[in-house]
Amino acid sequence: MLKRQMKDVPAEQQEQIFSMIEKNPDFFMKIATEAQEKIKGGMSQQDAMMMVMKSHQDELKQVMGK
What we know:
Blueprint: H1 2-5, H2 11-23, H3 25-40, H4 45-55, H5 57-64
Helix pairs in contact: 3-4
């Protein structure tokens, strides 16, 4: 499913993203769950993801190695 949504993303970036997800599945599952809760509460998917990503900004930087 994720691959379909990322069809316009260059292959190199796709591999980098999939690698991060494979190394940290629990973290990304937590992000997905939080976003779904916000979407169910009436927020748009884009707004929900932005809010969740912002709230986990420091953790994301660590996962990305930055």
